[in-house]
Amino acid sequence: MISKLKNENTDSFYTAILNLQSIEECYAFFEDICTISEIQAMTQRFYVARLLEEGKTYQEISTATGASTATISRINKCLEYGADGYKIALERIKNAIS
Q1: Entry pTM
Q2: Would you tell me how many other CB atoms lie within 10 Å of the CB of residue 21?
Q3: By three-state DSSP, how is residue 15 classified?
């Protein structure tokens, strides 16, 4: 699948992320490039995806994360019909913990 976002600048940005070597480097990079609200929003979305993969209900997820049901629904659609980015990342994290 070719993303509509694909271009040289985006490739460079993703390459920079892939070359970060520790959690501390990730914190430093993302704190510089994003607002606190943006980091919190991305973190919340990823947590919602994890809870959906665990089979939690929208109400359980909303209570645990504070996410709206609209946000939860959007993430669920990404899990079902998206580019599999969430699934890849969730699987890799699961394998890293095991």
Answers
A1: 0.89
A2: 7
A3: helix
Burial of 24 (0-12, 13-18, 19+ CB in 10 A): exposed
Side chain identity at residue 79, one-letter code: L
Distances in whole angstroms, Cα of residue 38 to Cα of each of 30, 33, 58: 9, 10, 22
Q: Which domains does the chain have, with CATH numbers?
A: 1-33 (no CATH), 35-97 (1.10.1270.10)
Count other Cβ atoms within 10 Å, centred on residue 9.
9
Q: Of all helices (H) and strands (E), which one includes residue 69? A: helix 69-81
Could you report the per-residue pLDDT of 62-96, keeping only the tens digit for each? 999 999 999 999 999 999 999 999 999 999 998 88
Which residues of the chain form beta strands (DSSP E)? none
The one-letter amino acid at 62? S
